[in-house]
Amino acid sequence: MEITIGHILAFAGAALSVILAGLGSVKGVADAGAAAAGVIAEDPGKFGQVLPLQILPSTQGLYGLITAFLILLKVGMFEGELVNLTLNQGFLFLAASLPISIIGFVSAIYQGKLAAASIGIVAKRPKEFAKGMVLTAMVETFAVFAVLASLLMVLFGIKI
Amino acid sequence: MNKISIIGLEVEKKRLISSLMEMGIVDISDVEGKLDDEEWSKLVKSDGSIDKLNEIEADIRKLESAIKYLASYDNRKKGLFQPRIEMDRQKIKKIVQCKDNLMETVSRIDEVDGKLVELRSTESKLHNQIEILIPWSSMDIAIDECNTKVTSVIFGTVPEIIDIEVMKKDFSENLPFSFLEVLSKANERIYLALVYHNFCENETMDILKKYGFTKTQFNDLKGTVKQNIDRINKDIKEINTLREELGLEITELSSVLADLEVLCDFLNIELEKEKSYQNLLKTDKTFILEGWLPRELGSKAKENVENNFNCMVNIFEPEDGEEHPILLRNNSFIRPFEPITELYSLPSSNGIDPNALFAPYFLISIGVMMGDAGYGLIMLLVSGYFIWRYKQKGTLEKSLKLIFLCGAATVICGSLFGGWFGDIFDQIIGRKGVIPPLWFNPIEDPMKLLFWSIGFGMVQILFGMGVKGYMLIRDGKVLDAVFDVLFWYILLIGLCLLAVPTLSSVGKYMAISGAVLLVLTQGRAKKNIFSKLFSGILSLYNIIGILSDALSYSRLLALGMASGVIASVINTMGTLAGVDNIIGIILLIIVALIGHTFNILSGGLSAFVHGARLQYVEFFSRFYEDGGKAFNPLKINTKYIKIKQEVR
Q1: What pTM did the predictor assign?
Q2: Which residues contact B231 (CB under 8 A, 6 or more apart)?
Q3: Which residues 6+ apart lie within 8 Å of B457 measured at CB?
Q4: How far apart are CA A126 and CA A114, in angstroms?
Q5: Which residue from A32, B211, B271, B285 puts its CA 20 to 30 A from B145's CA?
């Protein structure tokens, strides 16, 4: 079987969704983690409360991975041989990966900022921690929509 | 909630407060506000003493730090969620009587701890000294006696890269009256001792400078280096025995830990009482107390107090619109949902308890978002085990029961959608549909689930508006209910019917008439006819808000699919080595265990957060009036022990 530009574009789409969404999560989790470390320095007992807040921005990376996995599944990587792809089909895969790549990247960064701020809530009013978690999760709504769009496009938009 | 006011005798105050505390049903409110009234302020003054409060708080702080310190020496067996030890009053009284002794122990613990810290720092200092001396230990002359009348000895180091032979040669050629000895090599430096004639001091120094020589000072060291090291080692040994002794003492002292815990709980109870005195007003011989208590407990409380004390008890209904504390009361099925409402905010006095209203919607949401019967089974088993094994009370119990209910919902939804640990059985057996879904598989037909998710959202939103209508009718605003709820129902149901081909003409007329009615009525608060019309038309804009709220329920599909896809990714990775050989099976077990645990935890977290969000943003915004203050009765609150109730 011959490797076509279509394959390259599909793989680029899969790679992009992991890379960009992952980058956003890296930044978000790191920002939240830095704030969490400050709180733990004051009171190590709050570890259990700050941890869920810190990992909230990591879901975007996960969504990126799911999208990549579905693209790779669709092009037949796990069945031993890649299916034949046209140039246009390749572009479709690339386009389908864009929502979660871009929104995942941006939303994870902003969610990380909000998570850091919510960790501040834990420092001052530990009882209100769940409210901070809900506020932080609001940002994720858009990542959820983006991954929904990407998944639908990959699964049903592209006929092979 | 009813209001209670008690006027009693000062001499009985302590006993009365204690008995209220045991009943645990009265939320004492602050009546200090009455002091602003001139007539009141002539008669009464505020009660309670800040000094006493501070004293108790200081004792508690000391006790808590001692308890925390001793916890590491605690050899009592303790499991997770250890049930508290039950204890009767006599025993507690006995322990509290030795309060002075116990507090002495606490200060002794503090002292010993301080000493231990000091010893530790001295020890590390001594170790450092030894580190410094060891390279010099081959020097067998006493350091303070090695200078003679005409010669001096200088100690120091040069970097390792210096060739010592060259240096020696340099000295023997230029300064015949000198002797250079290499003592040792360590830490990238060479340790040297140099004997030189006092006459040639300057020349010696010049040569030394060339080799990057650093002088080492031994300050007041006496005797040989060996002797010094031995002396320091002896000191360290002494410190160690001292530390052991102190450690033994602490272990001995830690036997009072249980007593300290009892005392700490007792003082916390006293603190609560002392705090409640702050809320009272008093004259010379009497005091007045005001508070809230649940309506149906009123007569019992009144009887109880009046029989045992010389006092006047009044119970009366709150005034119209007066804010009172909120106590949620639900049956045991709905109670686990209360923490979700408490996270948001309690309903206001005029509001409505939403727990029973959102419970079924919340369960379905969680079930669809987890979407895997296997995961649901695990949630059921784990939470069921904890509920059965550790009989906890309070929020923890509610949370465990909530997980249990969500697990049950997840099992039902999961079997509807055919997810059992993703598609693990398909992967192992190698053909599709080993356990067929009872309804349909959302990964194969996501549009169907998307449609149902949004429809489900629409139902919940309409239900929320219905609750609003009920509240309006309850408050006697029937017309508002018709205008704000019924007309919206007509419009929205009409719009939904448009999507159904056979009913689309009915839907069209319903939608149009609903819209017209809304335009006519929504501006009714405005005076001017044009602004009436304008705000009527503008109100139709709310359709967008309602529809986007309904679309927000598409997250049910997205999260459910994400959880399903991750599960099948885990299974695919696990079966990469095949399932017909032993390595493949081991790989599958490891990957499945780690992967599915991770997926349950992360999926559970996001399912909970998004499930709660749907209730807060999409459902509560339709009707919920928040801002209530929690009912917080004066009651016995202990951390370490449980006080045995006396049988009366």
Answers
A1: 0.75
A2: none
A3: B549, B550, B551, B552, B553, B614, B618
A4: 16
A5: B211
Using the Cβ of A114 and the Cβ atoms of chain B, whether some distance falls under 8 Å is answered with no
Using a 10 angstrom Cβ sphere, with 0-12 exposed, 13-18 middle and 19 or more buried, the burial of residue B77 is exposed
pLDDT in tens, B411-425: 999 999 988 998 888
Tokens encoding B395: 């929020």
State pLDDT tens for residues B459-515.
999 999 999 999 999 988 999 899 889 999 999 999 888 878 888 888 889 999 999
Q: At B442, is the pLDDT very low, low, confident or very high (cuts 50, 70, 90)? A: confident
Residue B376 structure tokens? 């649901």
Question: Could you tell me which residues come within 8 angstroms of residue B84 by beta carbon, excluding any fewer than 6 positions away?
Answer: B638, B640, B641, B642
Written as one string, the DSSP assignment of B347-380 is: EPTTS---HHHHHHHHHHHHHHHH--HHHHHHHH
Examine the pLDDT at B208 and tell me if it is beyond 60: yes
Check whether B648 has a pLDDT greater than 50: no
* Beta-carbon separation of A134 and B343 below 8 A: yes
Interface predicted TM-score (ipTM): 0.70
CB contact under 8 A, A141 and B555: yes
Q: Does residue A140 belong to the interface with chain B, where contact is any CB pair within 8 Å?
A: yes
CA distances from B642 to A125, B65, B126, B367, B637 (A): 28, 21, 49, 38, 9
Q: What angle do CA A44, A49, A53 make, to 5 degrees?
A: 120
Contacts of B447 in chain A (CB under 8 A): 156
> In the 8-state DSSP scheme, what is residue B345?
-
- In this complex, do B565 and A66 lie within 8 Å of one another by their Cβ atoms? yes
Handedness of CA B161, B163, B167, B170 (dihedral sign): negative
CA angle B233/B234/B238 to nearest 5° reads: 115
Comparison of pLDDT for B75 and B341, the residue scoring more: B341
Residues in chain B: 648
